[in-house]
Amino acid sequence: MSIIGWIVLGLAAGVVAKLLLPGRDPGGFIGTTLIGIAGAFTGGWISARWLDHPISKHFFDGATWAAAIGGSLVLLVVHRILFGTTRD
What we know:
70% helix, globular, mainly alpha
Protein backbone atom coordinates (compact mmCIF):
# COMPACT_ATOMS: atom_id res chain seq x y z
CA MET A 1 0.00 0.00 0.00
CA SER A 2 1.41 3.40 -0.92
CA ILE A 3 1.76 6.44 1.30
CA ILE A 4 -1.41 7.87 -0.26
CA GLY A 5 -3.26 4.69 0.71
CA TRP A 6 -2.09 5.06 4.33
CA ILE A 7 -3.22 8.69 4.37
CA VAL A 8 -6.67 7.78 3.03
CA LEU A 9 -6.87 4.92 5.53
CA GLY A 10 -5.85 7.33 8.30
CA LEU A 11 -8.53 9.81 7.31
CA ALA A 12 -11.17 7.10 7.42
CA ALA A 13 -9.79 5.68 10.68
CA GLY A 14 -9.91 9.15 12.25
CA VAL A 15 -13.57 9.53 11.29
CA VAL A 16 -14.43 6.08 12.67
CA ALA A 17 -12.48 6.79 15.88
CA LYS A 18 -14.38 10.07 16.27
CA LEU A 19 -17.68 8.23 15.81
CA LEU A 20 -16.68 5.63 18.41
CA LEU A 21 -15.42 8.25 20.86
CA PRO A 22 -17.75 11.25 20.53
CA GLY A 23 -17.27 14.52 22.31
CA ARG A 24 -15.47 17.78 21.96
CA ASP A 25 -11.90 17.54 20.76
CA PRO A 26 -9.37 20.27 21.42
CA GLY A 27 -8.14 20.16 17.80
CA GLY A 28 -11.44 20.06 15.94
CA PHE A 29 -11.88 18.28 12.61
CA ILE A 30 -8.37 18.93 11.31
CA GLY A 31 -6.78 17.75 14.56
CA THR A 32 -8.88 14.60 14.57
CA THR A 33 -7.94 13.94 10.94
CA LEU A 34 -4.22 14.31 11.67
CA ILE A 35 -4.59 12.05 14.71
CA GLY A 36 -6.29 9.49 12.44
CA ILE A 37 -3.38 9.54 10.00
CA ALA A 38 -0.83 9.25 12.81
CA GLY A 39 -2.95 6.52 14.40
CA ALA A 40 -2.97 4.50 11.19
CA PHE A 41 0.82 4.56 11.08
CA THR A 42 1.11 3.87 14.82
CA GLY A 43 -1.41 1.02 14.77
CA GLY A 44 0.30 -0.57 11.80
CA TRP A 45 3.68 -0.31 13.47
CA ILE A 46 2.42 -1.76 16.77
CA SER A 47 0.68 -4.59 14.94
CA ALA A 48 3.79 -5.50 12.98
CA ARG A 49 6.26 -4.99 15.82
CA TRP A 50 4.60 -6.47 18.92
CA LEU A 51 1.53 -8.39 17.86
CA ASP A 52 3.42 -10.46 15.28
CA HIS A 53 0.84 -9.65 12.62
CA PRO A 54 2.45 -7.73 9.79
CA ILE A 55 0.07 -5.42 7.98
CA SER A 56 -0.81 -6.68 4.53
CA LYS A 57 -0.38 -4.65 1.42
CA HIS A 58 -4.10 -4.77 0.68
CA PHE A 59 -6.24 -1.73 1.44
CA PHE A 60 -9.37 -3.74 2.28
CA ASP A 61 -7.77 -6.14 4.79
CA GLY A 62 -9.71 -6.22 8.08
CA ALA A 63 -6.58 -6.41 10.24
CA THR A 64 -5.18 -3.31 8.56
CA TRP A 65 -8.36 -1.39 9.30
CA ALA A 66 -8.50 -2.67 12.89
CA ALA A 67 -4.91 -1.61 13.51
CA ALA A 68 -5.52 1.84 12.02
CA ILE A 69 -8.72 2.43 13.99
CA GLY A 70 -7.18 1.08 17.20
CA GLY A 71 -4.15 3.33 16.81
CA SER A 72 -6.41 6.30 16.12
CA LEU A 73 -8.48 5.62 19.22
CA VAL A 74 -5.38 5.39 21.39
CA LEU A 75 -3.95 8.64 20.04
CA LEU A 76 -7.33 10.39 20.34
CA VAL A 77 -7.60 9.41 24.01
CA VAL A 78 -4.01 10.53 24.69
CA HIS A 79 -4.69 13.81 22.89
CA ARG A 80 -7.79 14.44 24.98
CA ILE A 81 -5.91 13.67 28.20
CA LEU A 82 -3.02 15.97 27.34
CA PHE A 83 -4.83 18.87 25.69
CA GLY A 84 -8.46 18.56 26.73
CA THR A 85 -10.12 21.22 28.79
CA THR A 86 -11.35 20.52 32.28
CA ARG A 87 -15.07 20.55 32.89
CA ASP A 88 -16.30 22.44 35.91
